[in-house]
Amino acid sequence: MNIHLDGNGRFARLGETFYSQVSPDPLPEPYMVSANPQLAARFGLDAEELHGEEMLALLAGNRVPRGVRPLAMLYAGHQFGHFVPQLGDGRALMLGELRDGEGKIWELQLKGAGLTPYSRSGDGRAVLRSSIREYLCSEAMHGLGIPTTRALCIVGSDEEVYREQIESAAVLTRLAPSHLRFGSFEVFYYRNQHQPLSILVEYLLEHHYPHLREEDHPVLALFREVVARSARLIAQWQLVGFAHGVMNTDNMSMLGLTLDYGPFGFLDAYDPAFICNHSDHEGRYSFENQPSIGYWNLSCLAQAMLPLFAPEPDAAVELAKDALADYEPAFMSAYADGMRAKLGLVTRDAEDHKLATGLLKIMQANGADYTRTFRALAGFRSADQGASCPAADEFADRDAFYRWGVDYAARLRREDSNDEIRGSAMNQVNPKYVLRNYLAQQAIDRALNRDYSEIERLRQLLARPFDEQPERDAYAALPPDWAGAISVSCSS
Ligand code: AMP
Ligand code: MG
Questions:
Q1: Which of 19, 78, 89, 91 to mutate for ligand 1's pocket (most ligand atoms within 8 Å of CB)?
Q2: Most buried among 135, 146, 356, 407, by the most CB within 10 A?
Q3: Confidence (pLDDT) at 2
């Protein structure tokens, strides 16, 4: 069995200005850790087929089919606010492109496939722990309806790699329509190479934003669309309580996808200052900073695209500023709409913002769990103003919740809200299950003992995060005490 990888696909044809050709470093004695049947099916594959010897060798980076020229993409990026002129795929290799059942083209990358010209001081490897986290979170985000790169499988090996401790190596297969990043533009802008910038824009317009080609100013239209998509993406992160952890511009997708899962985390108790990345001492990428960091990152992208906006620098800057000004309203409106849906409101009211922040404030003061509180809010009955609502259980001071419930009930009455209808609509937007850190950690701990069953259980659970799955109720419980001690850093 094989997949039809096009080694001379759309991106490869752009030429070596944009990447380096690299052979993967063989992974000793590879074995399949987990294969994603849902995604495999999209490509007409059976997950079992991925376990076959040939496919395993391909997915480990040990067999490069004829016609395939693996490549590492070039990019730069602002890391924690500082510009790094050259980054690039230091451990990911694009094998080629493949078509799904609907004819859509995807890039297939092996993450952890060995050294590239961009590895800097790294070893080109990914560890099993982080590969499991990325695998599960990509699929969890997809289940939540949030744009993301996808994950097809994890191949493991007993090869040792050195991080804070000795760990074992793994290769994650990830897929995306494009892996281009803001940093893919920055690298050429700072080298003063404007031709490659235009080529990248043309490429994106042709293959990923064809509807913008007829616009008066397609480059600007493209930038505006990236602004809009990024705003919506980050609003979705905030609504579901997801912290990315490393929002460097090299981890920001030109397609508005969640990209490069590292020390991410979902909120447990609601804490806007939540920092999921233990290497982020200043809290630059704290949960509440994400929306403004999104803007900052888009400003970096705008800077890199300036030469394409207008020949006159001043005019280019004006156009960029104008487009960037759309970010905040786009974010606010996506967030406000999403928050209204989380509260089960169907009409708009000037007081909605106050109602939502009122709830978030008491959640913060009471250490209420973000996911559980919103999920339980579906059980709110207008008639008793929340007296019977299980969400009250999440609050140390239940009266704080009941006081808020008076305002909420009044608001619901203003739109004649029906408890039943509202409750089921809310369950479509407030997930019951998210990939809490401790859940990922449990799957990792078992995998380190060669038991991969928990990865598969979590993958299945998180593919349907809005559905009640009574036999899996325990996965929606509050995190255990030991969860607080889990430390996730950039090293992966
Ligand atoms: P990240 O913050 O994980 O997205 O990575 C930032 C940069 O470091 C990218 O260029 C990565 O390819 C590179 N990198 C991260 N880990 C490694 C590694 N173990 N070996 C080589 N390069 C790496
Ligand atoms: Mg990255």
A1: 91
A2: 135
A3: 67
* pLDDT score at 444: 98
Residues lining ligand 1, Cβ inside 6 A: 87-91, 118-119, 122-125, 246, 251, 260, 262
pLDDT at 18: 98
For the chain, domain boundaries: 12-179, 183-266+276-307
Answer yes or no: is pLDDT of 307 > 90: yes
Q: Which range, of 45-49, 71-75, 468-472, averages the lowest pLDDT?
A: 45-49
Residue 105 has pLDDT above 90, yes or no: yes
Residue 177 Cα, ligand 2 centroid: separation in angstroms? Answer: 17
Q: Classify residue 4 by burial, with Cβ atoms within 10 Å: 0-12, 13-18, 19+.
A: exposed
Q: How far apart are CA 92 and CA 61, in angstroms?
A: 11
pLDDT of 486: 86
Measure 145 CA to ligand 2 centroid, in angstroms.
22
Q: How far is the CA of 344 from the centre of ligand 1 (A)?
A: 41
Among this protein's residues, is 250 annotated catalytic?
yes
Give me the pLDDT at residue 418, please: 98
Q: Which amino acid is at 170?
A: A
Ligand nearest to the backbone CA of 122: 1
Confidence bin at 48 (pLDDT 50/70/90): confident
> How high does pLDDT run on average in the chain?
97
Provide the pLDDT for residue 358.
98
Asked if pLDDT for residue 477 goes beyond 90, the answer is yes
Q: Does the structure show a pLDDT above 90 at 47?
A: no
Ligand 1, atom 23, lies closest to the CA of 90
- Tell if the pTM clears 0.85, that is, is over it: yes
- Calpha distance 206→116 (Å, rounded): 29
The average pLDDT across 452-458 equals 98
